[in-house]
Amino acid sequence: MKWITRERARVDRIACPWLIRRFIDPAPAFLFVPAAEVLSAAKREGAIPYDVPNVELGHRGPKCSFDAFVERYELDDPALAALAPIVRGADTDDRGLTPESAGLYAAATGFQAMSRDDFDNMAHQFPMYDALYTFCQQQVASVARTPRVLFVCLHGAAKSVVGAAYFRRIAAARGLAVEAGAAGTEPDAELTPAAVKGLAGDGLPAAPQRPRPVTLHDLRSASRVVSFGCDVVPQAGQRVERWDDVPAISDGYEKARDRIVARVETLVSELARR
Length: 274
Hints:
The chain is α/β, with parallel strands linked by helices. The chain has helices at about 10-25, 40-45, 65-70, 80-90, 100-115, 120-140, 160-175, 195-200, 215-220, 255-270; strands at about 1-5, 30-35, 50, 150-155, 180-185, 225-230, 240.
């Protein structure tokens, strides 16, 4: 995927590419352009804009773009949760937010000054973020991660969303502490209306609100993967279940839902026995 932001990066616009490369996109292409050109260039290049006003992956209230990436791509890593306020403090005026924030700001300012361009800056700063991430891992070493089942379909817009929604409901009803996520190998721009309407009628929210791609973090961290007719290769040897016999949501929500629910109930029962 292509990612685009303002040139002359310092903190957030280096931290976000590091996050993308390490946890989201296995082959990212980064573009840095003048601030006034980001949105037009994004449209022309088919790139995802970040850290500019009025985009999804930008600042919201006290939070910075790094926070937006963590939330949008469901990066449920305790070490990233610890790293986010360090970046936030360094990127905003709240330098006292963490003990490390002021130091990160100082180092990033120095790297910005000594780098030839933004790509040289990334090369200089990425090892610093690797070190900060390792530091955060040590700080949260005792924090237990909640297992997560990843549901994947081609467009991340219907079957995977329904599967994740019903898994959350059924797992919660049985007291099973396992989370669920939904993603697509070739995600659409929007969720399928039939899936959103059907889930709403069942009293369930559709999440995420927009389809998202399968990330590197998903492939490393999901405890179990469910695939609806697409190939997914986890990176930690996780088991993949193929539910290729589930009919298309477009052929009837109830029929597809009932098949998914039956499969989810079996999966939850299996996980509860462990």
